[in-house]
Amino acid sequence: MTAIKKTFNYGESDLTIETGEMARQADGAVVVSMNETVVLVTAVGKRQAVPGRDFFPLTVNYQEKTYAAGRIPGGFFKREGKPAEKEVLTSRMIDRPIRPLFPGGWRFESQIIALVLSADSANDTDVLAITGASAALALSDIPFQKTIAGVRVGLVDGQYLINPTFEQRKQSKLDIIVAGTKEGLVMVEAGAKEVNEEQVVEALEAAHAAIKQIVAAIDDMAKEVGKKKATVASKEVDAAFAAEVEGK
Q: Which of 19, 75, 160, 183 is the most buried (most CB within 10 A)?
């Protein structure tokens, strides 16, 4: 696979998505970076069906290691232990928007791993991991149905900032994480300091404009990579059972 690289500018920062250099044995792999913050995201799906399995076994792991910030654990505990709260919450934040976008008949074990390679103490990694997960799936043969992207929006001095830095977020009246496709939004998670409804709507619109740009670039990369998506038998729901559920 030839290396492909796309870069977008958001105010003071550049968002870069690269593929073809790292983790080439994964079904799909991308490196997403913003300044010196870098996240490697890989997607792998098994192809061996398990008879009788009636659920989708998706695993999402977001991992931060202290070496990403240039530190090595010392003292009595020289190894890192269980996942930190940030790792658990970010794993869930990646899982929520992508899980419903797999086809209903996909029952194979699938795994998304987002590994922070470098942290620059200015840019957060969570939205990079969401975008990276979607990009890795889009570039793979796993039948992911809609490309998504994730962005954070801040509101500082009346200006909406896409993916603000930690310092800007301290001054921001709004901290909202949005994931969406080119057609619409699929996840919103927000905190705010008494902003009005109009400001929230404008933040969502700013987020969606950025998302559309990122999604278009990921789709272009997928066309360049040219992997054909695996076919999946559609899962039919018994009509009588569906009618009974609707009735109740």
A: 19
* Cα distance between residue 83 and residue 221, in whole Å: 32
Per-position b or e across 112-137, b if 16+ CB within 10 A of its CB: bbbbbebbbebbbbbbbbbbbbbbbb
pLDDT digits (tens, 9 = 90+) for 35-59: 999 999 999 999 888 888 888 999 9
Residues with Cβ < 8 Å from 185, sequence gap 6 or more?
A: 178, 179, 204, 207, 208, 211
∠ CA 15-18-24, nearest 5°, is: 150
Instruction: Write the CB contacts of 20 (distance below 8 Å, at least 6 apart in sequence).
Output: 1, 2, 3, 4
Helix (H), strand (E) counts: the chain: 5, 10
d(CA 105, CA 54): 9
Residues 121 and 129: their CA atoms lie apart, in Å, by 16
Beta strands 149-156 and 58-63, pairing class: unpaired
d(CA 157, CA 155): 7
The token duo for 219 is: 């789709």
Alpha-helix residue ranges (DSSP H) falling in the chain: 85-98, 126-139, 166-171, 197-225, 239-247
Residue with tokens 């968002």: 15
Mean pLDDT score across all residues of the chain:
91
